[in-house]
């Protein structure tokens, strides 16, 4: 059964909350955190060709949504970027990270190993992971100056042949839970949450959108 009108409205509220829509600016590099959405890699290639940064660092092994992939998220993203015309010598890959904290730690380690110490970068994610990623970076890489961005795709256009609307709503709920939960664990900064957004989250929980919650939250 397709989602109700109320569920769609609540999901859209979470989508709009997760997205930060920060303005782009030239940077020393682009950090691309891996996922199951290769459109992020295409967006990274577009920003490279627009001259916003001289290199791309793709980070990601296999995570919650990519466990069955034959190759790592980083390798998949890098191949897509090369297909979009980014030269191989402008691409770096970190292939071990399985969650956002490791994306941060292992990307930092790789940059240190290459004697790169960027002061300002662009960080790319899926649209609905912008806020959670910013919150994590603010705690786990405090000295880094960055702007968050994601492919300019709106909620109604995001589902495709690999990511269904149902999958998207489950993911929106899962990431919102982590926005709430991670600050108390020292993994992310506190985020202001409007009451109407919190209400949308609880509506989706009651509607059964819990597949991306950890077992401890159920």
Describe the overall structure.
The protein has a domain at 22-149: Rossmann fold (3-Layer(aba) Sandwich), CATH 3.40.50. It has a five-stranded parallel sheet, with helices on both faces. The chain has helices spanning 5-18, 39-49, 73-83, 100-113, 130-140, 165-181, 195-206, and strands at residues 30-33, 56-59, 91-94, 120-124, 145-149. Helices cover 41% and strands 10% of the residues. Helix 5 links the parallel strand 4 (120-124) and strand 5 (145-149). The model has no long low-confidence stretch (mean pLDDT 94). With 218 residues, the protein is an alpha/beta fold.
Keywords:
218 residues; alpha/beta; five-stranded parallel sheet; Rossmann fold; globular; 41% helix
What's the short story on this structure?
This protein is α/β, with parallel strands linked by helices and 218 residues long. It has helices at 5-18, 39-49, 73-83, 100-113, 130-140, 165-181, 195-206, and strands at residues 30-33, 56-59, 91-94, 120-124, 145-149. It has a domain at 22-149: HUPs (Rossmann fold), CATH 3.40.50.620.
């Amino acid at each position: 059964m397709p989602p109700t009108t109320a569920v769609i409205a609540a999901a859209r509220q979470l989508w709009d909350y997760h997205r930060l829509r920060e303005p782009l600016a030239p940077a020393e590099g682009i950090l691309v955190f891996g996922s199951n959405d290769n459109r992020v890699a295409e967006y990274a290639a577009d920003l490279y060709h627009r001259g916003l940064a001289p290199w791309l660092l793709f980070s990601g092994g296999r995570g919650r949504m990519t466990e069955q992939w034959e190759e790592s998220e980083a390798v998949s993203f890098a191949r897509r970027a090369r297909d979009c015309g980014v030269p191989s010598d402008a691409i770096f890959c970190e292939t071990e990270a399985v969650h956002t904290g490791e994306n941060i730690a292992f990307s930092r380690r790789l940059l240190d190993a290459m004697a790169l110490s960027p002061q300002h970068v662009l960080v790319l994610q899926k649209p609905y992971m912008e806020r959670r990623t910013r919150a994590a970076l603010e705690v786990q890489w405090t000295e880094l100056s960055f702007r968050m961005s994601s492919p300019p795709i709106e909620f109604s256009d995001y589902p495709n042949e690999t990511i269904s609307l149902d999958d998207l709503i489950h993911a929106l709920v899962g990431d919102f839970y982590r926005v709430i939960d991670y600050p108390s664990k020292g993994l992310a900064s506190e985020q202001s949450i409007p009451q109407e957004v919190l209400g949308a989250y609880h509506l989706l929980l009651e509607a059964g959108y819990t597949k991306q919650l950890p077992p401890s939250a159920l």
